[in-house]
Amino acid sequence: xxxxxxxxxxxxxxxxxxxxxxxxxxxxxxxxxxxxxxxxxxxxxxxxxxxxxxxxxxxxxxxxxxxxxxxxxxxxxxxxxxxxxxxxxxxxxxxxxxxxxxxxxxxxxxxxxxxxxxxxxxxxxxxxxxxxxxxxxxxxxxxxxxxxxxxxxxxxxxxxx
Amino acid sequence: xxxxxxxxxxxxxxxxxxxxxxxxxxxxxxxxxxxxxxxxxxxxxxxxxxxxxxxxxxxxxxxxxxxxxxxxxxxxxxxxxxxxxxxxxxxxxxxxxxxxxxxxxxxxxxxxxxxxxxxxxxxxxxxxxxxxxxxxxxxxxxxxxxxxxxxxxxxxxxxxx
Lengths: 161, 161
Hints:
Two copies of one chain form a homodimer. Chain A is an alpha+beta fold. Chain A has a single domain (6-131), classed as 2-Layer Sandwich (Alpha-D-Glucose-1,6-Bisphosphate, Chain A, domain 4). Helix content of chain A is 28%, strand content 41%. The longest helix of chain A is centred in the C-terminal third of the chain and has 32 residues, at 129-160. Chain A is globular. The interface between A and B is medium-sized, with 24 and 24 residues.
């Protein structure tokens, strides 16, 4: 599929770069990041339950959500929105509770490709290469791929309904 | 002076690492970062006027301040506090208005050296090496050195008074 997640982990820089195209307009994909009622239906791999503790999606707001796996183990994620620019870009911090104080900063851009399509471009910056590698080895790529597939399914279902 | 600012810019990583010792306890140096009435008396190089627009120094809070040079040119800085741990550490974002969306994340640690001394350790992480170099070439080192000298003078004056 041409819309597959493209992931790049440069070996000598503490970054995770990615791109994902969608056959949906920017407005739809942005809304699925903005509205926690939608977000909890797609973020992360299949088979986890997601609970949004709070999600104040605006410049200066903060968020915290918990993924729980089938064995009942919780994984908490939290951060702060440095910039939210409607239908354009988000800059936010990101911390996994299992690695306290290992905080990354995430730059997300929503690009209009025309003809009702869009591209999500992400640039994640970690405080060390080791921290980036730890995140990459946690099953992140599979989780992101599945998450974006679920996002696509969610938007397709909304379009039909 | 043994308390001089030590600055390290690794050539292949987008970091600015620094250390600065103070002949003052952690509590004093932390308070000078926490209280905007103190902060505005030392942050940045001599000869600039600093106005704090807001400074909500707590986990989830945000800040914005403006330095104005003698010619009247304003320089705006803003960001968000991801974590504030009293007398221990601060994790915050940092953006210079002149380079919008070039946001760094700053890890500050306050270490007790005993005998009423402390060490401030900083790790700043930029979204690219070019962004880090741009910040480093903006007169940052001189500004930081002078700022910490002013902080020392401020705390010495408070101790005397």
